[in-house]
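User: Hi! Is it possible to get a structure for several chains at once, not just one? Here's what I have:
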Amino acid sequence: MSLAPRFWKEKTRRNAYGLLFLGAFVALLPAWLHTPYALSTMVLIGIDTLITVGLCLLMGYAGQISLGQAAFFGLGAYGSAILTTRFGWSPWLGLIGAAVCTAGVAYLIGIPVFRLSGHYLAMGTLAFGSIVHIALTEWKAYTGGPTGLPGIPRFSLAGVPLKSDLAYYYFVWAIALGGILIALNLVNSRFGRALRAIRDSQPAAESVGVDAGRYKLQALVISALYASVAGSLYAHYLIFVNPQISSLDASIRVLLMAAVGGLASIWGAPFGAAMVTLLTLGLREIVPRISGYGSGEHQIIAYGILLVVIMLFMPQGVTVAAAHAWDRLGGWPALRKRLPRVRRFR
Amino acid sequence: MPSFQPQDYVQLFVSGLSTGAIYVLIALGLITIYNVTGVINLAQGEFVMLGAMLAVALVRLHLPLALSALGAVLAVALLGGLVHRLTILPARQAPDVALIIITIGTAIAIRGAALFIWGTMPRSLPEFSPGAPIAVWGAVLSRQRVWIMGTAAAVLLLLYLFFEHTLLGKAVRACSINRQAAELIGVDARVMGTLAYALGAALSAIGGIVIAPLTLVSYDMGLMLGLKGFVVAIMGSLTRAPAAVIGGLLLGVLEAFISGLWASGFKDGIAFLVLFVLLLVRTVPWQDLWRRPA
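Assistant: Yes, the chains can be modeled jointly so their relative placement is included. Here is the combined structure:
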């Protein structure tokens, strides 16, 4: 028996179940993992999921590379931080204000940048990202410079401040799941079909009347909105921001999460975010013991190799490759056959 | 603002020129690779860092400086060829986005490996010919900066001779002009691609080694230098070497003046601003502006 209404299409039904399953998993996870360290890691994974979903829309569906996604994240985080600490806005208004500003910046940047394509687009977005990073570092009067901006207030829901990590965890993941739901609807709509058509061949898409420029711009603004909201959530969680969050390395980390999850897979985003975060934490423990140098971002060596290997051998992402391998092995029926038979009671 | 004397401007100019010469070397490596393989190698800056790092490591083994430099350049060239064989050739059919991500991945892996092997402590390379700086029109020019400009000029000359007057160089050029036609007359484009990668890596490594005595060598020095190399390569539309030479020297001088006269924090931003403006200028349909409306 199916819980979903009959008239839902197969894909819609699967997505609904997926969302329900992920929601239940996320809701129950703290029952098992409830140390402050685990909770804060899971909050950060939720934030990463949101920005990765945005990049998937832009890169996987619209086929437009962005090496400056962390810039939008930084703009969202700093927008929230500045609006709340310097102008006394509430965090909610800060989030909305920052998102509106970031979307505006994305729109203004998108108009000229999308005249470029391929390698030039990559360099253009990289340049934009670096300019934002340098501006956040150097514009000390507003951003606090390289040391960062402390004292950002926390969110409050219906007058109750979200002080505990557990409350914030549910808050972030509710927004992340909402973001996934919106993205799923977007990619399975006229908009999503237009993006895929542009990705596969822009001239072909334009010849059948798809306004490629407008759709690409919309995709960029939407992905910037995702990044900005993620940035705001980050700022109000850590109650401190520094310019490092908008660096090129941060953009590449988002790229890695999207690539691991599968560039054209919204569902891959939470997995990509979780895998990269867990890998980073694991490597930070292990690598310094081998190399003997305690400090430094040792995990980047694995980031690099992973990116190359994924792009060479499973360009659709680890999750999709794993799903295919699972299907090739026979899926559930094959596994059931191998398991020892359980005798049923009459 | 302190008052500036005329010789201060000369000072900024000559130091800018020598920094620009490094950018030129990196950009020429990029242009060589792009024209033969069609890949923008975002790992170019890491070859710069590796060249400098390996030279430092060899000097520490008590090898003479010249031998260390030569060894480092050869090792980086070998690695460049290897990178092409391992990461670019298997993905030739992949879309641009995948190739870009692959070169980014290579860059991070190399940077991570350097961090793993040498740690975060910056190292230094001795000057090639230590001694008192040379006075030029009232400005002082350190001997290393003379070395940089001399090396860059010599490398440019050698490159010119290689591409114009040797059979191998002509074969590489043939691949960049028309790959299919080159293959028809018996040039193996894949070997030429590997060769271009090795050459591009070697050029970057030379740049890294000559600038090493002036700036400390650290695992993350490649990023910014590599990015400046792109800016310069794009000044030459990724194909025209002479334009890149002039553009590189201009960028070096521009940066020197801005950091000298204004604020050094914005120095790196200038390159990106130039890049951004250049990319946008490229997209303006210049021909249409002159055409009369029908």
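Chain B has a mean pLDDT of 86. Residues 1 and 262 of chain B are 9 Å apart (CA to CA).

User: Great, thank you!
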